[in-house]
Amino acid sequence: MTDENDLSGAPAKRAPKPSPTSIGNHQLSAQTLMMGFGFDPSLSEGSLKPPIFLTSTFVFESAAHGKRFFEGITGKRPGGAEGLVYSRFNGPNQEILEGRLRLWEEAEEALTFSSGMSAIATLLLTYCKPGDVIVHSGPLYAATETLIAKILGKFGVSWFDFPSGATREEIDAVVAKAKEKGRVALIYLESPANPTNALVDVEAVAAARDAAFSGGDKPPIAIDNTFLGPLWARPLAQGADISVYSLTKYAGGHSDLVAGGLVGSKKWLDPIRMMRNTIGTICDPNTAWMLLRSLETLELRMTRAGENAVKVCEYLRGHDKVESVGYLGFLEPGSRQADIYNRHCSGAGSTFSLYLKGGEREAFAFLDALTIAHLAVSLGGTETLASAPAAMTHLSVPDERKQALGITDNLVRISIGVENADDLIADFENALNAV
Ligand SMILES: *Cc1c(COP(=O)(O)O)cnc(C)c1O
C-alpha cells in the first residue's frame, strides 16, 4: 500500500541551501550574517538581494505537497510548515527576516508582526484565557497597559504589577498575591521602563518564577526589549523566554516603517505562530524587505547612536539650565540599578530623559528652538527626536501616577540618532539658550 504522504518520489521542496555560520572553528557574528544569511540567490535568478515576493498565495508541486504543508500549518503534524502556502501564514521575505532576527539573541526562532503592538497582542491572546492573571513590571508602554488592563480585562483576565526596579522579595510578594487570584498565565516585563529608564532585574524575576511554579505550571517570561535590544541587552541570556520588539524603533531604525517581532525558543513561539496564522498579524513582505536592509546596518547605527548619546549627555549634565539627565550611563556606582545594568546591559542606549530647570514653559521653549532634532514621538531612528511626555505620550496618565513615575512638566524625552555629535551639541546649546 502506498502512503499518500510519502513524497519521496515528488520533487523536493526548493529550500534555500543552508548558509554557513562558521569558517572552520571561527563562529561568524550576527553583524556579518545580516548581509546574506538565509537567502539563496539561486532560487531568485541569481539576484544578490532577495526580491520582494508580492503574492497572496503559493503554488503546490502536487496535491500531496499541499496536504502535507497544511498538516504542518494546522499543527496536525509537528514540525511546522515545510513549504510556503498562503501569505497570511508566511512568505520568503518574512522567513529570511525571522532567520536573521533570531541570530542577535542566539535564539531558536523569531516571528515578525505588522507592529510591535500586534506582536504583543498575539502573544497575550496565545497565553491568556478567562480567569488568568498576568504579572507585569510597571510602568509599561501605554498601549500595552491598555491592552492588559482594559481589553483583556473585558475577557476576565486580571493583572498584578511590581515596580520595574523591584527586588526579589518584592517580586515574590506580587507573584504570591497573583497565584491566590488565579492561574498565572504570563510574566510580562519591560526594561528599561519608559520614561523612567528603570531596569528590571530579569535574573531575579526568573528565580522568583522558578521558585513559585513547577513543571507545566511555569508561566513564560516575556520582556519588551525595544529600548536596548538586540545590541545592548539580550534578556534571553538572563532567563527570559520571549524577547519582544517594536521593530519600528532601533531595528527598523529609519522611522519609515511599523513592525514587531518576538524572539525565543520554538517551544514558546510555536503556539504564537498558530495564533498569528489564525488572526493574520504577520509582517507584510515589503516591510520585511525593508527590515532586512535595516538589519545590515543595525550594529553600525546603534553603535554610533550610543556613542553620540554619551557625548550629548555629558554636555547636557553640565549645563546650568539642566536639573538632571536620566541616562543609563550615569547610574550611581554601587546602586541596585547599576548592579542590574552591569549584569544585563552592554551599553546605555541612546534614549534618555532630560529634566530642565522649570516646568512646561521651559520644556516647550527648548523643544520649539531645536533645529536638527525633530519634535516627534518615537525613538531609535537615524535622526534625533525630542518630545514632552507629560504633554504628549503620557497626557492621559492620571496626575498622581505621573508624579510617581517622574513624568513631570519639565521632562523632555530624547532619542539620539547617528548625526555628527558636535552638531547635536550645538543644536542643544542653542535650544538651551532660548529657554
Ligand atoms: C513603540 C513601542 C511599542 C509599540 O510598537 P509599535 O511598533 O508602535 O506597535 C511597544 N513597546 C515599546 C517599548 C515601544 O517603544
From TrEMBL:
Residue span of region Disordered: 1-25
Task: Cite the SUPFAM superfamilies for this sequence.
Answer: PLP-dependent transferases (SSF53383)
- Swiss-Prot/TrEMBL keywords: Pyridoxal phosphate
Gene3D superfamilies annotated for this entry?
Aspartate Aminotransferase, domain 1, Type I PLP-dependent aspartate aminotransferase-like (Major domain)
Q: Which cofactor does it need?
A: pyridoxal 5'-phosphate
Q: Is Ribonucleoprotein given among the entry's keywords?
A: no
What are the GO cellular component annotations? Answer: cytoplasm
Q: Which GO terms describe its biological process?
A: transsulfuration
A single Gene Ontology MF term assigned here is:
pyridoxal phosphate binding
- N6-(pyridoxal phosphate)lysine modification, residue list: K249
**Source organism superkingdom:** Bacteria
Family per record: Belongs to the trans-sulfuration enzymes family.
| Record protein name field | Cystathionine gamma-synthase family protein
Q: Show the taxonomic lineage.
A: Bacteria, Pseudomonadati, Pseudomonadota, Alphaproteobacteria, Sphingomonadales
